[in-house]
Amino acid sequence: MIIIKSPPEIEAMRLAGAMVGQFFEEVERHVRSGVATRELEEFAEEFVAKHGVRGAFKGYLGYPANLCTSINEEVVHGIPSGTRVLREGDIVSIDFGVVRDGFFGDAARTYAVGKISAGSENLLATTERALTKAIGVSLPGNRLGDISAAIQEEAEGAGFSVVRDFVGHGIGRTLHEEPQVPNFGTPGTGPKLMPGMVLAIEPMVNEGLFPVEVLPDGWTVVTRDRKRSAHFEHVVAITADGNRILSLP
Ligand code: MF3
Ligand code: CO
């Protein structure tokens, strides 16, 4: 069952999302060569304490941190570490969520560390564009498959592939609600989008082939071919007259 949110509930989710959006504005200046991903985690820990919110991920299914920091061939769920140091030319995906007044916010984006290759620039731009296109078709009366297909078309059109094993999701009073929001699919299929649905749309796009595997730490997801991967995520509410991105500052 897809839980429909009332306008006041959507407003509460916007406040949670705004906090996440603000985090991304602030974390960007910490992303540079020489910084360990553990330092980004420390910034996130301070951020949640300062704003009196709870990190959404820490403790979730035993996950040990507030952030996921996934470098280069890491797709999602990279665990911040004192020995993983960002280097010029790397890309790093940061995923962060909060719980504020009982509602979840969740977003992700991939940053360039200094100057990156043209191929990596294209991967980042394509993944963000796939998210933008997906939001553009997140309209009442359209179907979930329209969102999925928009992402797949944009990614594959650029010669990249979309991850199959991890998907976006509904979000509300829990981090993961129905429906699953795959990054691949067929237009005109799936549940009809209705005002009050709130979706975390999160394309994960691989430079090479789509298969992924989980490292022995039980969390870090990497591409099987060890080529790079990018990840952008926003929480989007379907409204009567279109949609609203909730995860903006
Ligand atoms: N944005 C991811 C998600 O929606 C982050 C989850 S990380 C986890 O699932 F540690 F909480 F699992
Ligand atoms: Co998510």
Characterize the structure shown.
There is one protein chain. α3 (118-136) packs antiparallel against α4 (144-157). The protein has helices spanning 7-27, 37-51, 118-136, 144-157, and strands at residues 54-55, 67-71, 74-76, 91-100, 103-112, 161-162, 168-170, 177-181, 198-201, 204-206, 212-214, 221-223, 229-231, 234-239, 242-245. The chain is globular, with a radius of gyration of 17 Å. It has 4 helices and 15 strands. A hairpin with a 2-residue loop joins β14 (234-239) and β15 (242-245). The chain starts with 6 loop residues before the first helix and ends with a strand. The strands form 4 sheets. It has a 5-stranded antiparallel beta sheet. Strands 1, 2, 4 and 5 form a 4-stranded antiparallel beta sheet that branches. Strands 3-12-11 form a 3-stranded antiparallel beta sheet, with no helix packed on it. Helix content is 28%, strand content 27%. With 249 residues, the protein is α+β, with helices and mostly antiparallel strands. It has a single domain (7-245), classed as Alpha-Beta Complex (Creatine Amidinohydrolase). The structure holds 2-amino-4-trifluoromethylsulfanyl-butyric acid (MF3) and cobalt (II) ion (CO). 2-amino-4-trifluoromethylsulfanyl-butyric acid (MF3) is lined by residues 57, 60-61, 63, 68, 77, 95, 106, 108, 169, 200, 233.
